[in-house]
């Protein structure tokens, strides 16, 4: 008995454990650490640009070769820095560092090739947008060639994307978040509510369980797989419910990564507007960022596409992160409340369920805190500089190196999406969940287009990102 | 609390193994998952803060049996 008590006490997690056991917090520590280091170098009259190396535009292979031979040591230093930082993270969260190191070297080499291909001056002509290239390459490797399972240790899609979003915060003025945040919240809330209700009631009409309907609805309406798994815990879903939602979200997210930029391109949407549409209608952060970055990369390279790459990313992030992601705790709380007070009254409940308001914070995606802090710090630092000073001093010494590092971690993430998507391993969803979710996707995409392009189009096409 | 129950498993690595595809667009180590996990008695996915009448205190030997 004493042993039991001791074990029970031992497994009780401490309040502080979350700070080093969750990827969200590590994205905050690393992201803000990198930003702080960049500021220190900048304020001392230097820059981290030496290590934030990236392939420059090239037109012949000999030019590319010359770049790599000149900067080879910088690439090795960058690999070493990423490896050191990320290995600390995986060690703390309880993964095997040895497997991670080998896997990450593999990711880094592939990402370097993708980055280099994307810098080819003919890349746009052949539609070789790096995010889509990374995704496609990953999908081919994982589904056609196959990789040993232990390599999965380095394919941390969510960690890379969260770190990238914190770094993205350092390149976005906080004034933009204040100015555009309310519109982002309004637009995203309308679409989220409508999509959730469409999926939920269609699923119920088709005879699906309340909890499965809620898990599916959250996946389509809030933030994809993360929302599904959060709501599954909140409503005490059956063990087999989350895989159904995971399969459907991954399936449609992969389709939309390619489809939304393709349609946006066909109708020449400005980058900010397309970013807002993608932010409203894509499911997962990483999938949407791949689509938004891909479309933003077309600005200036294709006739008829106005705006900048940064506008696509900014509009996307505002809608997705500020408009949708941060509300997952409230969705979970409300659905848990409905589950306990209504659904479980009419069904036999397996648990003595209580609804705890604390889950609004427990489930809050903490990386958003890093994103906001990074944005505030940059805004304060840049405040007082004229546009000319910003372009001459701040941008090359501070903003561009952080942007380069951000592009690296985003590429790791996009590649990891492809490498972890093994279609044959996804659970069969069944026709009724598929029908309910598909109806929600159609409504979501159409309503997202209507709000992003027709109602708020002028707003998203004119957002200022510097 | 389920967190202290032998039937409850919420190790993030294990959750990622049980749910293939979770790592594609989310993570077992994400904040949104809080401390949720699987109950091997009721076959549900729930919060570590929940409880039920079948609570069995965690002990290594019991846990191995439940996992097996």
Concise synopsis of the structure shown:
The complex is a heterodimer of chains A (about 475) and B (about 70). Helix content of chain A is about 75%, strand content about 0%.
Count of helical regions of chain B: 3
Question: Number of helix segments of chain A?
Answer: 19
End-to-end Cα distance of chain A, whole Å, is 63 Å
Shape annotation of chain B:
elongated
The largest β sheet of chain B comes out as: 3 strands, antiparallel
The main sheet of chain A comes to: none
Percentage of residues in helical conformation of chain B: 25-40%
Can you write the helix and strand succession of chain A as a string? HHHHHHHHHEHHHHHHHHHH
Encode the helix/strand succession of chain B as letters: EHHEEH
Spans of chain B of at least 5 consecutive residues whose pLDDT stays below 50 are none
**End-to-end gap of chain B:** 22 Å
Strand-residue proportion of chain A = under 5%
The oligomeric state is heterodimer
Strand line-up across the major sheet of chain B? 1-2-3
Low-confidence stretches of chain A: 1-11
How does this structure look, described?
The complex is a heterodimer of chains A (466) and B (68). By secondary structure, chain A is an all-alpha fold. The longest helix of chain A is centred in the C-terminal third of the chain and has 34 residues, at 387-420. Chain A has 19 helices and one strand. In chain A, α5 packs across α17 (387-420), α10 (241-266) packs parallel to α18 and α12 runs antiparallel to α13. A three-stranded antiparallel β-sheet of chain B has the order 1-2-3, covered by helices on one side. Chain B is α+β, with helices and mostly antiparallel strands and 68 residues long. The mean pLDDT of chain B is 88. The longest helix of chain B is centred in the last third of the chain and has 8 residues, at 60-67. In chain B, a hairpin with a 4-residue loop joins β2 and β3 (44-46). Chain B is elongated, with a radius of gyration of 12 Å. The two termini of chain B are 22 Å apart. Chains A and B meet through α1, α3, α7, α9 and β1 of A and α2 and β3 of B.
């Amino acid at each position: 008995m004493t042993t039991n008590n001791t074990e029970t006490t031992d497994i009780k997690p401490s309040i502080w454990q979350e700070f080093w056991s969750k990827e969200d917090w590590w994205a905050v520590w690393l992201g803000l650490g990198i930003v702080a280091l960049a500021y220190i170098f900048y304020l001392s009259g230097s820059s981290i640009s030496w290590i934030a190396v990236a392939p420059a535009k090239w037109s012949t292979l000999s030019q590319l070769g010359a770049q790599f031979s000149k900067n080879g040591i910088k690439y090795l230093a960058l690999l070493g820095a990423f490896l050191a930082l990320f290995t600390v993270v995986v060690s703390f969260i309880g993964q095997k560092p040895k497997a991670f190191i080998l896997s990450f070297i593999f990711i880094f080499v592939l990402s370097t090739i993708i980055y280099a291909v994307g810098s080819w001056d003919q890349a746009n002509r052949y539609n070789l947008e790096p995010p889509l290239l990374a995704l496609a390459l990953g999908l081919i490797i994982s589904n056609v060639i196959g990789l040993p399972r232990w390599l999965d240790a380095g394919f941390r899609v969510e960690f890379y994307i969260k770190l990238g979003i914190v770094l993205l915060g350092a390149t976005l003025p906080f004034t933009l978040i204040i100015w555009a945040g309310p519109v982002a919240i309004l637009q995203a809330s309308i679409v989220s509510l409508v999509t959730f209700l469409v999926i939920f009631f269609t699923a119920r009409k088709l005879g699906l369980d309340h909890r499965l309907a809620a898990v599916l609805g959250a996946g389509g309406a809030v933030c994809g797989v993360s929302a599904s798994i959060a709501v599954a815990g909140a409503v005490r879903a059956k063990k087999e419910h989350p895989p159904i939602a995971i399969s459907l979200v991954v399936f449609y997210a992969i389709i939309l990564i390619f489809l939304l930029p393709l349609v946006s391109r066909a109708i020449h949407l400005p980058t900010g507007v397309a970013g807002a549409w993608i932010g409203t209608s894509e499911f997962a952060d990483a999938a949407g960022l791949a689509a938004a970055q891909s479309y933003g990369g077309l600005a200036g390279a294709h006739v008829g596409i106005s705006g900048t790459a940064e506008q696509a990313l900014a509009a996307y992030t505002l809608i997705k992160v500020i408009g949708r992601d941060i509300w997952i705790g409230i969705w979970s709380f409300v659905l848990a409340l409905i589950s306990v007070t209504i659904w479980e009254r009419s069904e036999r409940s397996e648990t003595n369920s209580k609804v705890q308001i604390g889950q609004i914070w427990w489930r809050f995606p903490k990386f958003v805190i890093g994103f906001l802090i990074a944005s505030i710090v940059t805004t304060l630092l840049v405040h007082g500089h004229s546009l000319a000073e910003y372009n001459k001093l701040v941008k090359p010494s501070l903003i561009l190196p952080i942007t380069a590092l951000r592009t690296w971690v985003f590429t790791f993430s996009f590649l990891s999406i492809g490498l972890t998507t093994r279609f044959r391993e996804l659970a069969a969803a069944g026709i009724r969940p598929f029908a309910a979710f598909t109806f929600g996707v159609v409504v979501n995409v159409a309503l997202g287009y209507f709000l992003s392009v027709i109602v708020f189009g002028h707003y998203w096409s004119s957002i200022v990102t510097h | 609390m389920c967190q202290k129950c032998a039937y409850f498993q919420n190790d993030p690595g294990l959750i990622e193994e049980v749910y293939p595809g979770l790592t594609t667009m989310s993570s077992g180590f994400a904040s949104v998952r809080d401390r949720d996990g699987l109950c091997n008695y009721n076959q549900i996915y729930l919060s570590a803060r929940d409880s039920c009448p079948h609570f069995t205190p965690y002990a290594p030997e019991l846990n191995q049996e439940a996992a097996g």
